[in-house]
Every structure is written in structure tokens, then in C-alpha cells.
Amino acid sequence: MQNKIISISIPEEKKEILNSLKNRFNPEGSKLRRYQLHLLDTLIEFDGFCKKHDIQYCLAYGTLLGAIRHKGFIPWDDDADLWMDRENYEKLENLMKGEYHQLSENVYVAMGIRPELWSPPFAYIDIFILDSCPDNNVLAKIKEWIIRYIYIMIKLRGRYGTKSYGQYRKVAFLMPIALCHTVDRWKSIYKRVAQWFASQGTYSTSRIQCYNETMGGLKRRYSSDVCSELAYAYFEEHLFPIPAKYDEVLKVCYKDYMSIPNANNIHVHGYDNVFENHK
Q1: Is residue 220 classed exposed, middle or buried when 0-12, 13-18 and 19+ CB atoms within 10 A define those classes?
Q2: What letter would DSSP give residue 250?
Q3: Is the model's pLDDT at 140 over the cut of 90?
Q4: For the domain that residue 102 is a member of, what is the CATH number?
């Protein structure tokens, strides 16, 4: 393997803290740990699929942080996140047929704003797509707000005919506009806007951004070469690709990312519903 393997030495005192967090949140045999291992199996199979089809991806967000700081899942984490640039995502997209597509024997992909890998009975592995962010801050903000607006249209259109508006209740008055297009049409517009300021699938600006991010994460911007080179890191004793400039990525996302949070301030996701049928 030609790519560099990243391995961060963890001081002994931090190892003790990390072990105590693992014992508290995801000890071996616990419901959360079993689910994490299910996610790991999905990651391994997807990794094999990508190698077979020459598709590049890398770990992202909490999964990347877990690889660097914990050498595996963050003890309280119950999902996994991946990055792809537009060119490699289109390779994946060209291999898919329909909204739900079987990639391998046990791994499927569900298309949406954030494509989601899953394997029965459950798995939540989001794919985030990197696109060009305008160098001009005003244009960058305009593109970001257009994306936000289209995202709201997609959510409202999907809720048409239901009484469940959730957090979008305050903008329900925009429903007549949302009804101008189908959900698929809005998603197509979303994709086109995300690719503004790009040329033939390449980055033509000095910054990149994930426009299929959560609304809170849309402000994160990275240098356009942050994923131009990949390295590898051990994640649950398996090597997975990470950005060679992982330090830059993690500082944008988490600032002092090697600091271990106080256990009393950790809020665990409501994952119990995920395991309802996962024995």
C-alpha cells in the first residue's frame, strides 16, 4: 500500500480515559457496540466495492475523528460518514439504477440529498459530496442560502398531504412554491446548484464545501486540495482511506479535536429506536 498510514500516539493517561468512556458507552456485547460492528461490516464491504470499481472515498466527520483519536468508533457514536468528490460520486451514481440500488450482496444505497448506505436490518452511513465553494464570500453566501432554500422546498414537498411539518412548520406558507416541482425535480435543482463554480467535475475555486451537509454544517469550508491526496488510518483494526490533510479537516470541524470531552457533557443520540428490530 503506497499511501501513508497515519497513526497518532495516545498518551497513557488519555488511553485510560478513552477506555473508561468505552466501558461506559459501548462495552463489548452492548447494544450500541453490536450496532457499531454492523456498521463496520458495511464499511468493509463498501470499501471492497470501491476498490473493485476504482472509486475513491474517505472517512469524514465523527468517523474520521474516531479513526484519529480512538482508532475506531467514538464510544457514543451510532453512525458513520464518508466523503466523495463529485467525480468519484458520479462513478458510483453511474453504477446505480433507481432510487434504491444493491451495490453488493449485503450493501445497498438509498438516494437522497445525502445518499445513504445501508445493510439489513439497519445501517446509517451517509455519503457527503464535495463541490466547489466560490472564492468570493458574497457569492459563497448566496450559493449557501439558495441551497438552504431548495432544501426547505424538498422537505416541504415531501410533507405535502401530511400534518407533520416538524421544524418546518414556520415556513409552511411556502408550500405553494414547493408544489411547483416534484421532490425529484427539486433534488435535481439542488444537485445543479451544488455544482456551480465547477468545471467538468473538477474544482475551479480554492475552496470546497459539502452542500448536502446538515443545515448547521453548511458553513464548513475547506481548501480545495484537502482530499487531493489520501492516506490510511486504522479504524477498528481495519485500514480505511482518510484525507492526507486530516488535521485541517478536523480543525475546521472540531477545532481542538484531540481533546476528550467530559463524560457528563456527552449527549448520546437516541439510538434505541434504531435497534428496535436489531437483535
Answers
A1: middle
A2: H
A3: yes
A4: 3.30.460
Looking at the structure of the chain, the number of domains it has is: 1
Task: Establish if 219 belongs to a structural domain.
Answer: no
Q: What average pLDDT does this structure show over 42-70?
A: 96
DSSP 179-197: TTS-HHHHHHHHHHHHTTT
C-alpha to C-alpha distance for 274 and 278, rounded to whole angstroms: 7
Q: At 85, which helix (H) or strand (E)?
A: strand 80-85
Q: What is the DSSP string of 122-183?
A: ---EEEEEEEEE-SSHHHHHHHHHHHHHHHHHHHHHHTTTSS--GGGGGGGGGHHHHTTS-H
* Domain annotation covers residue 93: yes
Give per-residue pLDDT as tens, 265-274. 787 765 555 5
Beta bridge partners of 223: 207
| pLDDT at residue 38 in the model | 94
Residue 264 to residues 24, 25, 26, 61, Cα–Cα distance (Å): 11, 12, 15, 22
Structural domain boundaries enclosing 256: 5-129+228-266
Length of the chain: 279
Rounded CA separation 202/191 (Å): 15
Q: Which of 8-17, 61-70, 74-83, 141-150 has the lowest mean pLDDT?
A: 8-17
